[in-house]
Every structure is written in C-alpha cells, then in structure tokens.
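queue> pop job 88
queue> type: inverse folding (structure -> sequence)
queue> payload:
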C-alpha cells in the first residue's frame, strides 16, 4: 500500500494531537516526534513536486503506449485520461496507465523486442527519478 499525501498528513496529526501516557514519554516520545518530522519533510517534498511528477510520468507512459499501439494492438483511445490536477485524479489515471504499461512490457518481453524493452526500462528509471524523495543526513544514536 502506498499512502496518499493526505493520509500521511492526517496520520501525523492523529499521532501528535493527544499526549501519550507517562510511560510513552522520554525516548519513545522523541522517536515518535522524529518519525513525524521525517514524514512531514517527505510530505513537503511530495507537495512541492508531486503533481508535476505525476503529470510528467503520465505523459511519458502515454507516449510509450501510443508508440507501441499499432505494433501491439493497443487501443490508444482507451487509455485513461483526466483533466483534474489533484493527487487522487492523477493517481487514478497513473494506475490505469501503469497497468497498460505492464501489459505492454509483458508482450514486449514475450515477443523479444529488445529495443522496446530497453525503452521501457529507461522509462522505469525516469519514473523512479521523478518520484524520488530525499532524506537529510540523520544523526545516529
């Protein structure tokens, strides 16, 4: 399961809204605060870059699918699309496009289409880079 940005932020809120019992103070509370801080940092990065990453990823997947449509009998008109720019709308479209991409990749591998296989692998690398979140150096204990 990949939690959505709103899920992470609501979880942070719920985690911090009530003070814990006395036995949860000290090291436990320090760890709890550190985890909420890290999740907040990652959520901030996702807020800054998330929509642009999803839009770019959906465009790139659609381009690979459209390029392969004739050779692999794909219905390019049937690929999901949206005009919405919310995380949830873009993620719904992305899930459909990824499913189609996985199907295409399976067909490409079965056919032994090495050039298209490598193009899909490059797309996977680009998708990973678009979704990258960076952690700062963390102190050791």
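queue> result:
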């Amino acid at each position: 399961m990949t939690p959505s940005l709103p899920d992470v932020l609501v979880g942070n809120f719920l985690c911090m809204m009530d003070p814990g019992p006395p036995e949860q103070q000290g090291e436990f509370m320090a760890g709890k605060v550190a985890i909420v801080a890290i999740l907040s940092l990652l959520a901030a990065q996702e807020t800054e870059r998330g929509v642009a990453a999803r839009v770019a990823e959906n465009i790139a997947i659609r381009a690979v699918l459209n390029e392969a449509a004739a050779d692999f009998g794909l219905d390019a008109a049937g690929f999901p699309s949206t005009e919405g720019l919310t995380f949830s709308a873009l993620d719904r479209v992305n899930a459909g496009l990824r499913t189609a991409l996985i199907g295409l990749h399976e067909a490409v591998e079965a056919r032994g289409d090495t050039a298209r296989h490598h193009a899909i692998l490059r797309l996977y690398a680009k998708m990973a880079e678009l979704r990258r979140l960076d952690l700062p150096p963390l102190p050791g204990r």
